[in-house]
Specification:
Blueprint: E1 2-5, E2 8-18, E3 24-34, E4 37-47, H1 56-68, H2 72-78, H3 82-100
Antiparallel strand pairs: 1-2, 2-3, 3-4
């Protein structure tokens, strides 16, 4: 998945790893293409419990959320301020929902 944000191109990649004890790991990498030089910005991993059913979409969402939680050091290296970082997160999630073709459903609380 490719996300273009303020003149920079970011790649979001998902990998699936099967382990011997029937745990499936979903691994997400966010890679920044900085003028032909690719830098891994962050990674996130979700773990499936052996008793759970494997749902690719759930694993991707958890891994992506964990990959988007950047340390203060990385935030300062790649983004000028918190607003720019939050805009980046929104752009990634928007692109993710376009990529999966599963729109985010926001349910309002029922009014009594």
């Amino acid at each position: 998945m490719i996300v273009d944000f303020e003149g920079k191109r970011f790649y979001v990649k998902f990998y699936y790893i099967n382990s011997d004890n029937h745990r499936i790991l979903t691994h997400c990498q966010i890679i920044c293409d900085d003028g032909g030089k690719k830098i891994i910005l962050n990674t996130g991993t979700s773990y499936k419990h052996p008793n759970d059913n494997f749902v690719k979409d759930y694993g991707r969402k958890i891994a992506l959320r964990r990959a988007l939680d950047l340390s203060e050091y990385l935030k300062n290296q790649f983004f000028e301020n918190d607003e720019q970082y939050l805009s980046f997160r929104k752009a990634v999630w928007k692109r993710y929902f376009e990529f999966t073709n599963k729109p985010y459903l926001y349910r309002e609380k029922k009014k009594k």
